Amino acid sequence: MGIKTKFLVPYVVVCVASGNAFGFEVTTLTSTPNIVTGDYVLGYSFHTNSNLDITALGALSNPYGNLRSVGLWDSQGTLLISATVDGSEPITNSMNYTSTLTTHTSSGVFLKAGQDYVVGATGGAYWAIDPTFAVDSHITYLHGLYGSGSSPFSAPNTANGHDYFGGSFQAEVSTVRPVPEPCTILLAGTSVLAMCRRRLKAVRQQPWL
C-alpha cells in the first residue's frame, strides 16, 4: 500500500507593521512675527524625510477672523489637499488649524518620503514675514514662497530670501507601506510556481513504498 506524500506550497506573506503614530506641528513659530498685508498666497516649500499623513491644515491667526484658504501642493503645482480656516478654530502657536480637509487626488492625505511639496494660504491679508521658528525632523524646510493674487488659488512659487508663514500643517508618521508593483507580484508568483513544479517532480520520482 502506497503512502501519499504531502508537501506545502510556499506563499508570500506581506506584513504591515503597526506603530504608535503621533501628531505634530511641522513648523513652530518661536517669536512674535512681523506682519505684512496684501492679496498674496504665502507659505513655504519642504522636503519629506518620512512618510506622512496630513492631519490638519492651518493659517496664521489674525484679528479679522475672515475666511482663509489653505492648500498643499506637490512640486509640480498639483493641489493635493485643501481646507478653509475661518478663525474659530483653536490657536496653536499663532496658527488656526482645521482637520476638515478636502483631498484632490487618489493619494488622499498621504505624503511620500523623499519628495518636495509646498504649503500656503491666502484670503486673510495677514501674514508672518521672517519669524524665528523650529522645524520638526520629519521634514526639511526649503524656501519661503509667495504668489501674487488669490484667484485662482494656486501654489506660491517665488522665493526672494524671506521666510513667509501664511499656511502650515500638522501631520503624523504614516504606517502605510508601499503596495508591490505588478511586476514584483508577477516575479514572486513565477518563483512560487517554479518551486512547486520542482517539488512535485521530485515527489513523483520517488518510488512508492
> Mean pLDDT, as a whole number?
78
Task: Count up the helices.
Answer: 1
Q: Please give the number of β-strands.
A: 17
Terminal CA distance: 7 Å
Textual characterization of the structure:
- It is a single chain.
- This protein has one helix at 182-204; strands spanning 23-25, 27-29, 34-36, 40-48, 52-60, 68-74, 79-85, 91-92, 95-98, 102-103, 110-111, 116-122, 127-129, 133-135, 139-148, 164-165, 167-173.
- The longest helix has 23 residues, at 182-204.
- The strands form four sheets. Strands 1, 5, 8, 9, 11 and 17 form a six-stranded antiparallel beta sheet that branches.
- By secondary structure, it is mainly beta.
Brief descriptors of the model:
single chain; 209 residues; mainly beta; six-stranded antiparallel sheet; 1 helix
Topology:
Elements: E1 23-25, E2 27-29, E3 34-36, E4 40-48, E5 52-60, E6 68-74, E7 79-85, E8 91-92, E9 95-98, E10 102-103, E11 110-111, E12 116-122, E13 127-129, E14 133-135, E15 139-148, E16 164-165, E17 167-173, H1 182-204
Antiparallel strand pairs: 1-17, 2-14, 3-13, 4-12, 4-15, 5-9, 5-11, 5-17, 6-7, 6-12, 7-10, 8-9, 13-16
Short précis:
With 209 residues, this protein is mainly β. 11% of the residues lie in helices and 40% in strands.
